[in-house]
Amino acid sequence: MLALSTHRIQAGKDNVAKRLTLQQAIDTRDSLAKFIYTSLFDWLVEEINKSLEMGKRLTGRSISILDIYGFESFKKNSFEQFCINYANERLQQHFNRHLFKLEQEEYELDGIDWTKVDFEDNQECLDLFEKKPIGLISLLDEESNFPRATDLTLVNKLKQHLNAHSFFKGERSGAFSVRHYAGEVIYETSSFLEKNRDLLHSDTIQLLSSCSGRMPQLFASRMLNQFQKISNPLSQFSVIDSQKQSVGTKFKGQLFKLMQQLENTTPHFIRCIKPNSERLPGVYEKNIVLEQLRCCGVLEVVRISRSGYPTRMTHQEFARRYGFLLSENNAFQDPLSTSVAVLQQFDVLPEMYQVGYTKLYFRAGQIGALEDTRKQVLQGTLEVQKCFRGHQARRYFHELKRGVITLQSFVRGENTRKELRHQVAQKMVDEKLWAIVQLQSVIRGWLARRHFLHLQNTKKLKSDTVNFLGKTGRKISEVKDLTLQQVHILPLGVEELQRRVMQAEATLSQKEEENAALREQLNHFEARWSEYEAKMKAMEEMSQRQIASLQMSLTAAKKSLAADNTAGQPGRPDGSPSPCYYDSEDNMSMETQTPGGSTPIKFVNNGSDFGGGRGTNGINAVSHLVKEFEEHRQNFDNEAKAIVEVKPAQSASINPDEELRKLKHSFETWKKEYKIRLRETKAKLYKLGHSEEEKYRRSWWGKKSRKA
């Protein structure tokens, strides 16, 4: 609020805060918004250029497109229209320069017979804007520097210095008019000075510098870097206030940079014509369109194009492009003579072209015939070259083919000769091998027969020795020594025995290794089996304790029912009901531990006395439960023993842990079902054994019990 409503002024070494009026505060706000928008626009352009890697090395192959507002003339024209129309005047001058001035100057410099085409030049209007020191922009800047200047003083100064100019006219009520190339425009000077100043006080820059955002700080720092830095910050801000350029001067400088860039390029112009003043589709007003064509100079462009020479080529370029169309006698002349000879050969009329000092100038459509002839000659030349190249390629191919065939014939002959020599040598080798095999077969047969005869002699010797021992009674050791002496005589038998001994030793070592591995595996299985036996023993002991508890409960229930039956009828001998004592819950309970945890299991029964048929029914029900209990106990014992007695060899295929888990689950399921049936039996016994007046309860052990 302080930055937009006050303005600090440095008076000597002191700073004085001045309150701004409402309009001044609004102008300060607008200036801040414009500065932020301009800075953001410049930053975006810079970042986009960086991302596209636009640099000096790429500008030579770039295409620039300039799209601007057209000429503007409204009911109320202010400073914005003033700047836009000034830019259009400068671009119109660029248009006139390239299409009129440079075109006609080139004709005159090259010695072409040419009649000048008159066109409307707007140079005087540009001088009205740009001339120093009495131009519109200079006078506007001069008036903007006066603190007490107003819009009225600006108009008076403009009338005083520019009233004699033919393109300027002072109007009433603080306005002035300028005669542009497209028409006369009346500008109202209201807010001209404020918009031209575009004040951006030091307080506003300091406000942006104190922002927490990165972008405002960046904009403020760039603004400070544009001016010379002074040690005192306050004096630095005062420099900003005093040295800031006006909007008109800045716009003029940017426009000059743009025109300089356009002068370094080859321009192409696109004129946009407004078909009607109502901005309606499909409506074409001839008068408005014709007026725009006249203002833009399009009619003069058409007149120059019709009377001028749009196609132009230098003598060297024309001779190099069309000189080969002549005969060989004219091939070594200079470029100008060659060009004239080409034109005469193709009967080009003299009024359709002109010869300049450096170039040839042609009317529209005259160069087309030369281009067609050149294209036909080049096409025929290409056809001849194609046929000649094809002939050369075919001849070279045939020569190469003959050489390849000759080379292949020599190679194939050499390969055949080598193969034949190899077959003859192989045949000789096969014959030698067959002879060697025959000789080896004869030798092996002779050795086999000799070995067989030796074995027969040995066997016969053994039988004779046994018979001799039986008759003479010699010792076996002597026979063994004799046999060993005979074996030593046979070297072939000894070698066979040594080979067998070595094989037996290798087999023995292998079997010992296998036995060691099997022994380790057996130890591992025995350790696992001992663990399983310990677990099974613990399970068996726990299940036996539970079964014993259940059996005690059933025995107690059975004894209670038997006692009630021996007591006789439900009443005493004197006819009064026999007293029965029960616990508060009317049940008997027994808590046991399950094999896998500490979940209590309750077995309930009714302890009331019965009379007659009621007692018999209770005994039958309890007897049935006892019988079922014994059967299931025996089944669980058998299954547990079967798991414990399983052999280690079978445990490899049967998992004892899994079997134990299944047995435990089956036991738990049966225990829950049995518990429910005990409760149901208790309820039945309770209904049968108690009359309506008996409300006392007793436990089986003769004491009160409150366990549920």
UniProtKB/TrEMBL annotation:
SUPFAM superfamilies: P-loop containing nucleoside triphosphate hydrolases (SSF52540). Signal peptide: none annotated. One of its GO terms (cellular component) is myosin complex. Keywords: Actin-binding, ATP-binding, Calmodulin-binding, Coiled coil, Motor protein, Myosin, Nucleotide-binding, Repeat. One of its GO terms (molecular function) is actin binding. It comes from the Eukaryota. Belongs to the TRAFAC class myosin-kinesin ATPase superfamily. Myosin family. PANTHER family: DILUTE CLASS UNCONVENTIONAL MYOSIN, ISOFORM C (PTHR13140:SF706), MYOSIN (PTHR13140). This is Myosin motor domain-containing protein. It comes from Ilex paraguariensis. The lineage of its organism: Eukaryota, Viridiplantae, Streptophyta, Embryophyta, Tracheophyta.
